[in-house]
Amino acid sequence: MKSNSSIMTAALVTGISALVLGAAAPCFAVDVDAAKALAKKSNCTKCHAVDKKKDGPSFKETAAKYKGKADAEEKLYTHLTTNPMVKVDGNEEEHDNLKAKDEAEIRNVIAYILSR
Questions:
Q1: Who has greater pLDDT, 16 or 109?
Q2: What is the C-alpha separation between 39 and 33, in angstroms, rounded?
Q3: Nearest-angstrom CA–CA distance, 102 and 30
Q4: What are the domain boundaries of the chain?
Q5: 68, 73, 96, 99: least surrounded by Cβ within 10 Å?
Q6: Beta strands in the chain (DSSP E)
Q7: What's the N-to-C CA distance of the chain in angstroms?
Q8: What's this model's pTM, rounded to 2 decimal places?
Q9: pLDDT bucket at 28, cuts 50 / 70 / 90
């Protein structure tokens, strides 16, 4: 029979493992088709592509930039919802926001970009 401390240690290790694995994995499965549709509707594909640079960085480049960073989702959320100024061909211009008000749709696009 295991002692209470052994059982508590095993439970603690299991709980910590679940938290670590949960933090590393997206909270939900990415709906790729919905993300692509919203990106197209929002004109993201005018300046961005999945794997090649256009006027803006590719989604693959953006994913690499934020890989392993705890604040990646929030930084992209701010970027995609607040119309920040960005440089395009040496000129500053306002970045368009996503054409969505639904939090889940916005988070889905962010998860899509980060999964490239």
A1: 109
A2: 10
A3: 15
A4: 29-114
A5: 68
A6: 85-88, 91-94
A7: 48
A8: 0.74
A9: low
